[in-house]
Amino acid sequence: MEKKYLVLAYYKYVQVENPHHEVTIHKNFFKNSDAFGRIYISEEGINGQVSASEEVAKSYIDWMAGREIFCDIEFKIHEHREHTLHKMTIKYRKELVALKHKVDLNRNGEHVSPQQWQKMLESGEFVVLDVRNDYEWEIGHFENSEKPDCRYFRDFPDYADEFKKKYPEDAKIMMCCTGGIRCETFSALLKEHGYKKVYQLDGGILKYGLEVGTKHWKGKLFVFDQRLSVQVDNKTELPAISNCHVCEKSCDIYYNCVDSRCDRLFLCCDDCQRELKGLCSTECLQRAEGTIL
């Protein structure tokens, strides 16, 4: 029988009295197990991605459900034919989301279910704000969603200032991100800027895809593991909405430049990928072939 792997995405903002001890507990749980992941723990809570065999993944979910502070964590679960991560990182992180700006997380936006989100999209009454980075938005997003001019999440405080110049404080704002955690932080930031009608997609785009499907979604969903992108509902192949960064042909496959000195993330079609030998540009190709230093 073919082995099944599960990909777990989850987070929870909750007071963790001793996050360094929690790191140790997690490391002990996963020691010598068939699992890889990226798990960050702080005084604020936990944010994780885990790629594990079905047996280990279910054991972890059960273990977390039996612990008081994590018992109500919601796991977004995808099946995959192999591991999507290839090392296990479990460590302390001061901020679960690196906003570089302290916000009151008790003042975040109102959570709405994927089903309610769909109805709100169809009403046309809301500003739809996608708070992911620009390269995530490029390959897939909700119809009529606004793309912040931000390469990294730490750029969002400046973007919030620009947003306020564009939209009045009484604007109705729908906010989404991959799994929901960035909305917790950025919705609190918008509340700090005076906005009161702020709504966030509960469970993020991952949950929307699993529960609602592809309705009002275009393209693929960027993910932070070896896959780099997936179908939003984990099954339906939608037309590409992005283009090859080399020739501009329709394309939705991301690669990292194989030159370790560059390691640029770029969209590339099959033809350009073969021609450039996995590199992102003619400059990197020439450097790899020794024609430039």
Q: Work out the number of β strands.
A: 15
Tally of helical runs: 9
The poorly predicted ranges are: none
Global Rg? 20 Å
CATH-derived topology of the largest domain: Oxidized Rhodanese, domain 1
Can you tell me the CATH architecture of the largest domain? 3-Layer(aba) Sandwich
What percent of the residues sit in helical stretches (DSSP H or I)? 25-40%
Provide the domain count: 3
**Gap between N and C termini, in Å?**
50 Å
Q: Name the helix and strand elements from N-terminus to C-terminus, one letter apiece.
A: EHEEHEEEHEHEHEHEHEEEEEHH
Biggest β-sheet description: 5 strands, mixed
Shape label = globular
CATH H level, superfamily name of the largest domain = Rhodanese-like domain
Provide the β-strand percentage band: 15-25%
Can you describe this structure?
- The protein has 3 domains: 5-92, 2-Layer Sandwich (Alpha-Beta Plaits); 105-219, Rhodanese-like domain (Oxidized Rhodanese, domain 1), CATH 3.40.250.10; 243-293, no CATH class.
- The protein contains 9 helices and 15 strands.
- Helices cover 29% and strands 23% of the residues.
- It is globular and about 55 Å long.
- By secondary structure, the chain is an alpha/beta fold.
- The longest helix has 12 residues, at 19-30.
Task: Briefly summarize what is shown.
This protein has 293 residues and is an alpha/beta fold. Helices cover 29% and strands 23% of the residues. The protein has helices at residues 19-30, 54-65, 114-123, 134-139, 156-166, 181-192, 204-211, 270-275, 282-288; strands spanning 5-13, 35-42, 45-53, 76-80, 88-92, 110-112, 127-130, 140-142, 173-176, 198-201, 217-219, 221-222, 229-230, 254-256, 265-267.
